[in-house]
Design a protein that fits this description.
The chain is of the alpha/beta class. The protein has a single domain, classed as Vaccinia Virus protein VP39 (Rossmann fold). Helix content is 36%, strand content 19%. A seven-stranded mixed beta sheet has the order 3-2-1-4-5-7-6. Helix 5 packs across helix 8 and helix 9 packs antiparallel against helix 10. The radius of gyration is 19 Å and the shape is globular.
């Protein structure tokens, strides 16, 4: 996995910057009930999306949390007084404290299924009855846009995805949440060129091909042989799922 303290300085510019953040925030807010008054953004990173969540819904109190100190510092500069340094597996908040909890581009990073379930359970715990949990799913699959780069990388070693739609739904339902909608948004500025794919490979972006892996040079050579080395291929499209916490005694609560 990438070192997100080292990654913080170049995180935004390497991942589509403000256009991608705007698309992500719009997607999340489209699943947030109009009556919501508080939102917790788990794994807020540099706060580039979190800030737009706050700006995009007047009256919504937004709090960010991230476990990487460097990321949290960037986020705190964007949202003074509203960012907490903490691990998503052990959120330092009371039960039922937030009307909405979001986790954008988080669950795909978690290698241990036990930890994935713990994160979803924590998000459910701090969610108020009637509240909504919004999270990205199938992040890795979203980057497969059918390009020539994807053809080259199709045979690379893979680990099982930790954020498949079915898995995340099973974790959410296991915590007492119920499905409440979905949305898609474009990953603007994230269409890879072959040259960019090689750079990502060299710095460990593909976790099963870390720098120094015996196969890394072979994949780099195959990417270097592709035409139009600097032409970005199509942007990915990311998927959001929403889950609601039933109000006790309501129809949805059974």
């Amino acid at each position: 996995m990438l070192d997100y303290d080292k990654e913080a300085e170049r995180y935004d510019i390497s991942r589509g910057g403000e256009p991608r953040a705007a698309a992500a925030a719009e997607g999340v807010l489209g699943l947030v009930p109009v009556q919501a008054r508080s939102l917790l953004d788990v794994a807020c990173g540099t706060g580039i999306v979190t800030r737009r969540l706050a700006a995009g819904r007047p009256g919504l109190r937004v709090t960010g949390v991230d476990r990487a100190p460097a990321m949290a510092r960037y986020a705190a500069a964007r949202l003074p007084g509203a960012v907490v340094l903490a691990d998503g597996r052990r959120l330092p908040f009371q039960d039922a404290e937030f009307d909405v909890v979001s986790s954008v581009w988080l669950l795909h990073l978690v290698e241990d299924p036990v930890d994935t379930r713990r994160i979803v359970a924590e998000c459910a715990r701090v969610l108020s009855p009637g509240g909504t949990y919004v999270t990205t799913v199938d992040k890795g699959a979203s980057h497969n846009v059918g390009s020539d780069i994807d053809v080259v990388l199709a045979s690379r070693p893979r680990r099982p995805a930790s954020d498949t739609d079915a898995l995340v739904e099973s974790y959410a339902v296991g915590c007492g949440l119920v499905p409440a909608g979905q949305a898609r948004f474009p990953g603007r500025g994230q269409g890879r060129s072959p040259r960019r794919a090689i750079a990502d490979l060299r710095r460990g972006w593909f976790v099963t091909l870390p720098p120094g892996h015996p196969l890394a040079d072979d994949f780099a050579a195959r990417l270097a042989a592709l035409p139009d080395q600097d032409r970005p291929r199509p942007d990915p499209a990311f998927t959001l799922r929403a889950f609601r916490k039933p109000v006790p005694g309501s129809f949805l609560a059974g």
